[in-house]
Write a structure and sequence with these properties.
By secondary structure, this protein is an alpha+beta fold. It is 48% helix and 24% strand. The protein is built from nine helices and nine strands. The strands form two sheets. It has a five-stranded antiparallel β-sheet, with helices on one face. A hairpin with a 2-residue loop joins strand 4 and strand 5.
Length: 272
């Protein structure tokens, strides 16, 4: 399931949560378990050591420290420990009364959040684990407060990780566009290289560069066309092809719109 961090923050701020338990589990290497189901309530899985692969309703998740996973109630579950180390993790089970929430029900879904190494999340999780192990009734409120604190920290970390990941992806996309602007590129093709649709890619590109990818590509092409008009004797059609436009008429219209003069007029002016 795709995750909207802002939407998820609103969901957990509004939904009525009851914490069931927080348990720690250690599984020996090589252990596998197929054909079971998640409990009749929701849960977050917090990897601590080792690696595992879990399938929630047939969707695989590679589990390791720095990532947090969620599964809804009564989902089909297959799991196996990877590598030669023990698989050590905590799982927080909770009940979500979200019938009044007029949004996607994250409590009923499976998804992954990448948080990176965050000691505050670990501290809050271990405090929850300690408090849930006691039966003192006055701690129930403290448990709920700790849960909300932890969710806030998780979502802030996930948002920061997403920003960093998005920046790195955009930097790679900019490098690619600089290298291959002369090819018949489309934004959809570039976005697909990074597993994104057009809208997602455009949003990230604009957030990190200040302009949309289509505008950036046009700027690169027109800038290179100006250089070629000034330094070569190529025809307008040849220059159009050199900067990624198969139709010289379209190129000429675009060039004039961006520079105020046609390519042929620009070409004549360079000799003045």
């Amino acid at each position: 399931m795709s995750v909207d961090i802002s939407e998820m923050a609103q969901y957990y701020a509004k939904v009525n949560i009851s914490i069931i338990d927080v348990v720690r589990v250690t599984v020996p290497p090589g252990r596998k378990c197929f054909g079971v189901y998640t409990p009749p309530f929701s849960g977050f899985v917090f990897p601590l050591r080792g690696r595992a692969r879990m399938f929630f309703d047939g969707v695989p998740y590679e589990m390791e420290y720095g990532k947090i996973f969620h599964a809804g109630p009564n989902m089909s579950l297959d799991k196996e420990v990877l590598g030669d180390s023990e698989w050590d993790f905590m799982v927080l089970h909770y009940q979500a009364d979200d019938q009044i929430i007029d949004k996607v029900s994250y409590g009923q879904a499976h998804f992954e959040l990448e948080t990176g190494s965050n000691t505050r999340i670990n501290d809050l999780l271990h405090r929850l684990h300690k408090h849930c192990a006691t039966s003192e009734p006055f701690l129930a409120l403290r448990v709920k407060v700790l849960f909300l604190e932890m969710m806030s920290e998780i979502l802030l970390s996930a948002n920061n990780q997403s920003r960093e990941s998005g920046r790195e992806m955009v930097e790679k996309a900019v490098t690619y566009m600089n290298m291959y602007y002369m090819e018949p590129l489309t934004i959809s093709q570039i976005a697909a290289q990074y597993g994104l649709n057009n809208k997602q890619f455009t949003y990230l590109f604009q957030r990190h560069t200040g302009i949309g990818p289509t505008e950036y590509l046009i700027q690169q092409r027109i800038g290179r066309a100006r250089e070629l008009l000034c330094t070569t004797r190529c025809s307008v059609a040849e220059i159009a092809a050199c900067v990624g436009y198969a139709d010289p008429y379209y190129f000429s219209k675009l060039f004039k719109k961006r520079t105020g003069v046609s390519p042929s007029s620009f070409n004549r002016r360079k000799g003045q």
